[in-house]
């Protein structure tokens, strides 16, 4: 499901009712743009007529991404017998979705180059949480055989895009949110006390402007309320919700406070995820965190 929503719109902002909000979101999406290489890779990943040569040209335009592609294909995860030093071969082996995920990971990591800390929150901690949720989402997808593991990974990686943008462009308001979260408030509730929106709406709006896959946009928008997602995207939203909760429970939180509620039984039922499978996911996630895989 890489096209934008089939039936129900994922992000709705009433420009007439909230002109200031629409203007703010538009401004943030304009000043925070994807690099040309990442934009091109996103286009190629959704274009069935594109080929390896097209993707090679796009990857070559970003030396850091090219290095990450070679590092990824030669990692223990793929277990290849012979080392791959040819970028074209690496791209062919990894595939379009994996390259797209790497491109967005590289871009997102650049937003964490400078440090930012307040109370229990740190920019580094938010990055670690994003990567941890990405790994957890992939584990859930593989275990319950719902959604593409690559799409689940991307949804997990990008689910807190709104918090990243708040940290980058509205830091003083994020600090007020953190104050309330530190006192026990839920993140979205705290945001609505400080702002006329929460991070899920901001993140989903900007993700729409950047032409992210619709399932990823839905995961960003509904990862705190997955059962409210359009029916086509309820499973990817539920995967992200559970992944987010497990990472909070493991101590890898977004704002430095473990304040994520356990999902309802209906959320687990959406994925037909039972207690045995959940225990397996938890054990694998713990192993990944302990081995510094994230």
Q: How would you characterize the overall build of this protein?
A:
The chain has 16 helices and two strands. With 294 residues, it is mainly α. A hairpin with a 2-residue loop joins strand 1 and strand 2 (121-122). Helix 9 crosses helix 10 and helix 13 (214-222) packs across helix 14 (234-249). The protein is globular and about 55 Å long.
Question: What is the strand and helix layout of this fold?
Answer:
Layout: H1 19-31, H2 36-45, H3 52-60, H4 63-73, H5 87-94, H6 96-110, E1 117-118, E2 121-122, H7 123-144, H8 149-158, H9 161-169, H10 171-182, H11 187-194, H12 199-209, H13 214-222, H14 234-249, H15 265-270, H16 275-290
Antiparallel strand pairs: 1-2
What attributes does this structure have?
294 residues, mainly alpha, two-stranded antiparallel ribbon, globular, disordered N terminus
| Overall residue-averaged pLDDT value | 89
Instruction: Please list the strands of the largest sheet in the order they lie side by side.
Output: 1-2
Give a short account of the largest sheet: 2 strands, antiparallel
Total number of helices:
16
What is the strand content?
A: under 5%
Terminal-residue CA separation: 27 Å
Order of helical and strand elements: HHHHHHEEHHHHHHHHHH
Specify the overall morphology: globular
Per DSSP E runs of 2 or more residues, the count of β-strands stands at 2
Low-confidence stretches: 1-6
Radius of gyration: 19 Å
The helix/strand class is: mainly alpha
């Amino acid at each position: 499901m890489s096209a934008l929503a089939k039936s129900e719109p994922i992000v709705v902002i009433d420009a007439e009712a909230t002109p200031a909000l629409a203007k703010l979101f538009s401004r943030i999406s304009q000043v925070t743009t994807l690099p040309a290489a990442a934009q091109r890779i996103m286009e190629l990943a959704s274009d069935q007529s594109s080929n390896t040569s097209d993707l090679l040209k796009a990857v070559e335009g970003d030396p850091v991404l090219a290095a990450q592609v070679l590092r990824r294909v030669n990692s223990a995860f793929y277990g290849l017998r012979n080392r791959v030093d040819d970028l074209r071969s690496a791209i062919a082996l990894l595939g379009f979705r994996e390259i797209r995920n790497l491109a967005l990971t590289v871009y997102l990591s650049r937003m964490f180059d400078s440090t930012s800390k307040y109370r229990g929150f740190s920019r580094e901690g938010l990055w670690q949480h994003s990567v941890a949720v990405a790994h957890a989402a992939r584990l859930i997808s593989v275990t319950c055989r719902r959604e593409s593991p690559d799409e689940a990974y991307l949804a997990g990686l990008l689910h807190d895009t709104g918090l990243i943008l708040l940290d980058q462009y509205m830091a003083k308001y994020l600090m007020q949110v953190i104050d309330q979260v530190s006192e026990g408030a839920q993140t979205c509730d705290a945001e609505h006390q400080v702002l006329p929106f929460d991070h899920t709406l901001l993140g989903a709006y900007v993700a729409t402007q950047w032409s992210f896959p619709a399932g990823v946009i839905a995961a960003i928008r509904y990862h705190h309320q997955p059962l409210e997602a359009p029916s086509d995207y309820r499973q990817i939203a539920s995967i992200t919700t559970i992944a987010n909760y497990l990472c909070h429970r493991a101590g890898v939180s977004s704002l430095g406070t473990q304040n994520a509620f356990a999902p309802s039984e209906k959320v687990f039922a959406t994925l037909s995820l039972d207690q045995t499978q959940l225990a397996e996911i938890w054990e694998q996630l713990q192993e990944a965190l302990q081995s510094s895989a994230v």
